Amino acid sequence: MTDAPLRVVIADDDPDIRTLVSIAVRRAGLNLVADVGAGDTALVALREHKPDIAILDVSMPGMTGIEVTRALQDDAELSGIRVFLLSAGVTDVARQAGIDAGAEDYFFKPFSPRELAARLVEIVAKPGAAL
Questions:
Q1: What phi, psi does 35 have (nearest 5°)?
Q2: At 130, is the pLDDT very low, low, confident or very high (cuts 50, 70, 90)?
Q3: Taking the model in full, what pTM does it have?
Q4: 52 in a domain, yes or no?
Q5: Using CA atoms in the order 37, 39, 43, 48, what is the torsion angle rounded to 10 degrees?
Q6: Which residues contact 127 (CB under 8 A, 6 or more apart)?
Q7: Residue 127's pLDDT band (cuts 50, 70, 90)
Q8: Across-strand partners of 10?
Q9: What is the 3-state secondary structure (H, E, C) of the chain?
């Protein structure tokens, strides 16, 4: 494993949310390599940058975050990207749908950048986390 910060792609159709997630990514010591506003452009950015982590909104134009997650799982070259979903859908059913699609975790909106950063640090540092 290298000491270089983990690379992250963010996708959310709300620019304010992208800004908040960017703040959290930087606070967590991660390297933001791209942020985009639609699911289809997220998939393009993920293929181009091959990051360690993708933070995707569930509801985006083009493709949903769940569709992007499934596409990553179906692509042997990208299936190792750790996916975290963001959504205002705060039901257990919605969360489970994201996990079933292959996401590692599901963050609910609204969130504080500080809490998201702490959660990202916790997740990427947990024992057995292969990156």
A1: -140, 130
A2: very low
A3: 0.91
A4: yes
A5: -10
A6: none
A7: low
A8: 35, 55
A9: CCCCCCEEEEECCCHHHHHHHHHHHHHCCCEEEEEECCHHHHHHHHHHHCCCEEEEECCCCCCCHHHHHHHHHCCCCCCCCEEEEEECCCCHHHHHHHHHHCCCEEEECCCCHHHHHHHHHHHHHCCCCCC
Provide the CATH number for the domain around residue 35.
Answer: 3.40.50.2300
In a domain, 2, yes or no: no
Total domains in the chain come to 1
In a domain, 48, yes or no: yes
Side chain identity at residue 50, one-letter code = K
CA 21 to the chain's CA centroid = 9
Residue for token pair 């179906």: 74
